[in-house]
Amino acid sequence: MAQTTELSVKELERQAGLVFGGKTAYAMLCSPGFSGFTAASTVAQWQTVEVTGNGYTRKSAPLLAGSYDTTLGLFRIPDVDFEFTSTGAGYSYDRVILYLSGETYIHSMITESPGITMVPGMKQTYRISFRQDD
């Protein structure tokens, strides 16, 4: 006999509220070199290899209330755009680290391969999607 389990939309909404509710999302650019840092590393560890100077600033954005997407079957938080601009001599990085306020561990990591070299005046934008799915 086959069984089917269906997760309630309200349960997805509850979970999303616990994970994202009232939080701020942060994006930082990092050059870890041979540090060995991974997606399981802490925010504090990643901050030790964060880019500095030449117009770089860590970005933040509040996470707004979301809604259930019936087409995708998941709970969506509105997308967040993080825009970085270089000045001076520019800078290089190969990781974008995303984390949420109050959390010890990162939310996720984007690896750029090859790495990105930001020349003066260059802008790089990352559109980040936050979802809660079963």
Note the main attributes of this structure.
mainly beta, four-stranded antiparallel sheet, about 130 residues, three-stranded antiparallel sheet, 7 strands
Describe the protein.
The structure is a single chain. This protein is mainly beta. The protein has one domain. The protein is 13% helix and 43% strand. The chain is built from 2 helices and 7 strands. A 4-stranded antiparallel β-sheet has the order 2-1-5-6. It has a 3-stranded antiparallel β-sheet with strand order 3-4-7. It is elongated. The mean pLDDT is 93.
In short:
This protein is mainly beta. Helix content is 13%, strand content 43%.
Strands, helices and their partners?
Blueprint: H1 9-20, E1 24-30, H2 43-47, E2 59-62, E3 67-69, E4 74-85, E5 91-100, E6 108-118, E7 123-132
Antiparallel strand pairs: 1-2, 1-5, 3-4, 4-7, 5-6
Overall structural class, as computed from helix and strand content, comes to mainly beta
The total strand number stands at 7
N-to-C terminal Cα separation, in Å?
Answer: 23 Å
Task: Please state the overall shape, judged from the principal axes of the Cα atoms.
Answer: elongated
The number of helical runs is 2
How large is the radius of gyration? 17 Å
- Whole-number total of structural domains: 1
Neighbour order of strands in the largest sheet: 2-1-5-6
Spell the H/E element sequence.
HEHEEEEEE
Strand content: 35-45%
Biggest β-sheet, characterized?
A: 4 strands, antiparallel
Specify the helix fraction band.
10-25%
Unreliable spans: none
Global mean pLDDT: 93
